[in-house]
Write a structure and sequence with these properties.
- It comes from Cesiribacter andamanensis AMV16.
- It is a multi-pass membrane protein.
- This protein has about 325 residues and is an all-alpha fold.
- It has one domain.
- The protein has helices spanning about 1-35, 40-45, 55-65, 70-80, 80-100, 110-135, 150-155, 160-180, 190-220, 225-230, 230-250, 255-280, 295, 300-330; strands at about 280-285, 290.
- Strands 1-2 form a two-stranded antiparallel sheet.
Length: about 325
């Protein structure tokens, strides 16, 4: 029972990090392609809540470390390079945004802060997606002996499939940010520009999704067959596809709340389909074996304490986040 609760918190934390932290990264991507007139709106949207979004990533790390030590160990060993790049990107992005937004002196250094903020916003999601792809592709060696440095630490994540997953993740974050920013715009003209950005990002997201399936086939991973063979995954992808016309209509009519709900729903459906097909597998090895959540679970005593801490912590964190958003995200007169 407690193992199921811990797994549930792990999945929810991942989904929330994508929905909220992902949009945070995506805002930096959208800013890189937006005019200077929109930079203030984007910064104002990020400023009050960007740090709080990392709660979900911290939860993921803690749950893996405490609840599934073998998975944490394997990731830290074979995927440490993209994980290091991911952490560096998070730190650089946070520092650059803080210095740029709160610096008392505005001089030429602001240009460097802006450059670091945008570049790290673009490449951090890329490495996050490459880590996810590396866990499931099946290039992680089953043993250290007899393998080169490249086979051990480069090949598991530096390949076409992982790159495609990274591009998909980047497009997803940009899409979420563009949709969320529609509700942050204070002028009708600015809102229309974010709508246009959301439509382009959605198109890029669909194309990058097709790229993931193509790259999987090129790398010998039967991803398409796996999805087609799962009724749950087919249902989720079918619903996500059917909701596309409604999403575009909501964007065209600038229905802010409905657009946000549909964007979040599509994200949950796509990721849910992936989780459905892979569960309970967490890592795949080159010898065809896999490490599952059940096999990697910590002793029952540890799971009991971890599950209890998560239940108590959620009772404190969720209301706090609600009041944070309610305080800083006032109602927008342009929202419908």
């Amino acid at each position: 029972m407690m193992l199921a609760i811990v797994i549930l918190f792990l999945v929810i934390s991942l989904l929330f990090y994508v929905l909220f932290g992902g949009a945070d990264f995506g805002a930096g991507i959208i800013e890189a392609f937006a005019s200077r007139h929109h930079h203030h709106t984007i910064s104002k949207a990020i400023a009050p809540v960007w740090e709080a979004n990392h709660i979900w990533l911290i939860l993921v790390v803690v749950i893996l470390f405490m609840g599934f030590p073998p998975i944490y160990a394997e990731m830290s060993r074979f995927l440490h390079l993209p994980l290091l790049a991911l952490l560096i990107g998070i730190v650089l992005r946070g520092c650059a945004f803080t210095f740029r937004h709160y610096d008392a002196v505005h001089d030429r250094s602001q240009r460097w802060y802006t450059l670091v903020f945008r570049v790290s916003s673009l490449f951090t999601p890329l490495f996050l997606g490459m880590v996810a792809g590396g866990m499931l592709l099946g290039r992680i060696p089953a043993q250290l002996e007899g393998n080169s440095y490249y086979s051990l630490f480069i090949a598991p994540w530096f390949n076409l499939f992982c790159l495609a997953v990274g591009v998909f993740t980047t497009c997803l974050f940009a899409f979420l940010a563009a949709v969320y920013l529609i509700g942050e715009a204070r002028e009708s003209g600015e809102q229309k520009r974010f709508v246009r950005a959301a439509r382009w990002a959605n198109l890029a997201l669909v194309l990058s999704g097709a790229l993931v399936f193509g790259a999987a086939a090129a790398e010998g991973l039967p991803l398409l067959a796996t999805f087609l063979g799962s009724a749950g995954a087919l249902l989720a992808l079918g619903l996500a596809t059917l909701s596309l016309p409604l999403l575009w209509l909501a964007l065209l009519r600038q229905w802010v709340i409905l657009s946000r709900l549909l964007a979040g729903l599509q994200t949950l459906l796509v990721l849910g389909a992936w989780f459905w097909t892979e569960y309970p597998v967490a890592l795949r090895y080159t010898n065809g074996m896999a490490l599952t959540l059940f096999e990697a679970a910590a002793p029952q005593a540890t799971l009991q304490q971890l599950g209890l801490a998560l239940l108590v912590g959620s009772a404190l964190i969720l209301p706090s986040l609600y009041f944070l958003l309610r305080t800083f995200k006032k109602a927008n007169p342009l929202q419908v």
